[in-house]
């Protein structure tokens, strides 16, 4: 640890801003690249169109993300979704001068529309990531992280269940899982009441 002069402290702050801007560009480029690797195809040696990741020898896009990119499949999917939402679905409906961090963009994905994207991005620029979470999801209080130990097959099954739940509910994996659990609890409660 060093005691910095005022000038050194200001230079450090400028460095943070420069690195943040470079990182933001790299994140957006990764979003685009992951989107492209998910949707693009190539002719294989039999003349059939196959997913590029399959041609590269991977069993799934998720395997490609985990093994070649070195990113968790959920993170890769969230990056891909950022590109899909902001640069495909909402292209032309927001100004890139309002670009915010990848964490904020991932938070906004389920909530932005053509009508509100500009205003949400402007708000997000002035908020911490936690404050933005509270703003988009309502005043629900602080978040808690829950960790579970699952086998690989159980984790895959949980992912599949959450994917099914996303057909009914929007939000984070945790929010969708809570909705599924609430529905299950209601169903069990009805069964117990009818059995009594």
* Strand and helix order: HEEHHHHHHHH
How far apart are the termini? 67 Å
Query: Which residues sit in consecutive blocks of at least 5 with pLDDT less than 50?
Result: none
> Number of DSSP helices?
9
Structural class: mainly alpha
Overall 3D form: globular
Strand content: under 5%
Strand order of the largest sheet: 1-2
Largest sheet: 2 strands, antiparallel
Count of beta strands:
2
Helix fraction, binned, reads 55-70%
Rg computed from alpha carbons, rounded to a whole number of angstroms? 21 Å
Average pLDDT, all residues: 88
Q: How does this structure look, described?
A:
The chain is globular and about 75 Å long. It is mainly alpha-helical. It has helices at residues 6-39, 52-55, 61-69, 73-89, 102-108, 117-125, 129-137, 152-165, 173-195, and strands at residues 41-43, 49-51. Helices cover 64% and strands 3% of the residues. It has a two-stranded antiparallel ribbon with strand order 1-2. It has a domain at 144-196. Helix 3 (61-69) packs across helix 4 and helix 5 runs parallel beside helix 7. The chain has 9 helices and 2 strands; from the N terminus they run H-E-E-H-H-H-H-H-H-H-H.
